[in-house]
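**Tokenised fold:**
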Amino acid sequence: MSEKKYGIFYGSTTGSTEGVAKKLAEVLNVAAEDVHNIAETSPVKFGEYDYILAGTSTWGSGEVQDDWYDALDGMEALVLKGKKVAVFGCGDENMSDTFCGAVGVLYKKFAQTGAEMKGQFNAEGYVFEDSEARISDDLMCGLVLDEVNKPELTDGRIKEWVKTL
């Protein structure tokens, strides 16, 4: 049986989500050439991987990081059936009504491609009112991180999240 190939794709404005993508690569032993800035990568590249990890920061009222917009516009044409996808992202829990909402946007777009969605994770330790990434009271559709207010939770959460993949 062949080893599963991971591809990590991220959009990052301030560097936080890029940093998380690199930490994930380190924990999963993913080569640097399999970590992609979505600003410089075509969505066709998703097809090269068995497992796709997609990350974004959240901006405004829950929007994805700007570099994701072109990729998301073409998602309807992608068929990722047979692929496993997990989403992650950074937000600021002080933006209480949209905390990591962009993670939910990515989740919904990838789910429409027929991919098997993985990586649901709890939001324990964060305090917020609402999020597009929320599935139930304490369950999120992916890994949510707050590098602004609670960076001390990041490394532990990454290690726990990777176990769910």
